[in-house]
Amino acid sequence: MKSLVALFAVAFTLAVPLSGCNTWRGAGQDIQKAGEKMEDSAKKRQ
Q1: CA 27, CA 20: separation in Å to the nearest integer?
Q2: DSSP state of 23
Q3: Tens-place pLDDT, residues 5-46
Q4: How far apart are CA 19 and CA 26, in angstroms?
Q5: For the segment 16-26, what is each residue's pLDDT rounded down to a tens digit?
Q6: Please, what's the b/e burial string for 14-28 (b: 16 or more CB within 10 A of its CB; e: otherwise)?
Q7: Whole-structure pTM over 0.70, yes or no?
Q8: Helix (H, G, I), strand (E, B) or coil at 46
Q9: How confident is the model at residue 2 (pLDDT cuts 50, 70, 90)?
């Protein structure tokens, strides 16, 4: 039972962010942009 709840939790966690993307390619672009923003933020703090 606990593993079933964990499975649903993981599926929900992955589905919510990806629902905002039109395609898997869009998901990759979103992740890349998030990484670039983190990198820019880190450079500003140095």
Answers
A1: 8
A2: S
A3: 888 888 888 877 766 666 767 778 888 999 999 998 888 887
A4: 10
A5: 776 666 676 77
A6: eeeeeeeeeeeeeee
A7: no
A8: coil
A9: confident
> If residue 45 lies in a helix (H) or strand (E), which one and from where to where?
helix 24-45
Q: How far apart are alpha carbons 10 and 15 in whole angstroms?
A: 8
Q: 18: which residues sit within 8 A by CB, 6+ positions away?
A: 24, 27
Q: CA quadruple 22, 28, 31, 35: dihedral positive or negative?
A: negative
Q: And the tokens for 31?
A: 């992740």
3-state secondary structure of 21: coil
